[in-house]
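Why this split exists: single-chain examples teach little about how molecules sit against one another. For that reason, every record in the complexes split bundles all components of an assembly together and asks for one structure covering all of them. Below is a record exactly as it appears in the raw files.
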Amino acid sequence: MSIGWYLAVSAIVFALGAAGVMVRRNPLVVLLCLELMLNGANLALVAFSRMWGNGDGQIFALVVMTVAACEVCIGLGLIVAIHRRRLPIDVDELRELQG
Amino acid sequence: MSSILFFIAGFGAIAGAIGVVMLRDPFYAVLALVGHLLSLAVLFLLLRAEFVAAVQVVVYAGAVMVLYVFVVAYVGGREEPIGERLRGRGPAGAQLRLGAAILSGALLVELLIALLGTGLKAVSGDGASYTPGPKTFGTPAYIGQLLLTRFLLVFEAASLLLTIAAVGAVVLARRRGGIDDEDGNGDGDARRLVLTPLDLIRPPETGTMAEGVGSRK
């Protein structure tokens, strides 16, 4: 398959993730959609890496995975902290970031 | 053969992504994301990124998704009807949601134009030449050599970032003020007036582990 097909799949996944981030209300699902966007970018990186026969894109993809793991770590910690304070788990109702 | 595998994995990835966005129950959304990640690992294998595919399955579909399942089970994700959401019952109106859908559609069109409409000849090709071997492109030996020579600084920065994230998660998700405070009987106030040398490095009510189990108030 030509590289263009992989890039098309990555664009579709990225756009779906962006739609999910904007439409969904549960912060857990928003985090999941963020993962979708990162994975779309990862697929494009690996496809470009294959295109040039160069490993730099794969290293970049691994770093993106590290950043995604950190983001999950902090995001889930925030959700657990919100749950502890018995606040609504809903991004529309959590409008203030003041403690 | 590889094109059949590509279409199966590509449809799996897109279906998983649609599932994440559309499914109401967060638990099923997590399961859809697991399917999406596994299909993406197949796509990585087709792109000769063996090590990245293995990391995708082990770290992403394994560890990170288990973390998600734990938090969904702990928080008890509320079901959210997406049709009602699009019709706009909530603080933000239906126009905003419709605008979001239009915006993401425009984003998709723009991305496709940027990626496929480019004049780059290599995009419509199969990529660089590839010969199988133990130390060729994409194998663990190749990636490891790159990480420890050319990208050593990136490697160390990633390890530092992971440490900061781990500390941040512990600080965020700790229990503040001990167990008793959740029930409202704050009987620890009198005893808190006695300061010990430990309070210099760990002030009271900062959610230390000792406070969490109630042994130090």
